Amino acid sequence: MIVNGVDKGLYIFMEKLKSDENRINTLKLTVADNAMPNVSGGYITKADKTTGGDTVAWTMTAYNGASINLIHESPKPAEITTQQNTYIFNVFNSLRSVMTAQNSSILTGYPSIIDVPSFVDFYADKRIQFQCGWISFQYLFS
Question: For residue range 12-29, what is the model confidence (pLDDT) as tens digits?
């Protein structure tokens, strides 16, 4: 960055995952939300490198055989219950299964699990920003 002709260095602007009505609008889960329908909403789980003592919720295998750590952002690892962790783990496994089977059925395929337009927007945004690490490291599961 150059300000008034002076090189101030390289700056990278990043957005941290955050749950609120103007960012990622999810329901706040409580420790009592352990059965349907309440257990089905309010998660932010990220696939990322662990830093600063992040607690790994579970590990999945990427298309290239690499291990991908999944980390709960919301609810926090210390707050999530066993039932909630099991629920979201099963959703990730279901998504992996229907994607591997190339099941595009609205009723039983990946459109029944993810919001396709928002996923496409998110994916395109990462490609436009040339965030190649995002694609190769974080989200491609076998």
Answer: 766 677 777 887 788 889
DSSP of 109-138, one letter per residue? SGGGTS-HHHHHHHHHHHHHTT-HHIIIII
Dihedral pair phi/psi, residue 116, rounded to 5°: -60, -50
Name the token pair of 32: 């009592």
Give the predicted TM-score (pTM) of the model: 0.75
| 3-state secondary structure at position 106 | coil
d(C-alpha 73, C-alpha 96), whole Å: 20
pLDDT value at 126 more than 80: no
- 121, two tokens: 């927007």
Helix (H) or strand (E) segment spanning residue 83: helix 82-100
Residue partners of 130: CB distance under 8 A and separation at least 6: none
Would you kindly state where each structural domain of the chain is located, as residue ranges? Answer: 20-138
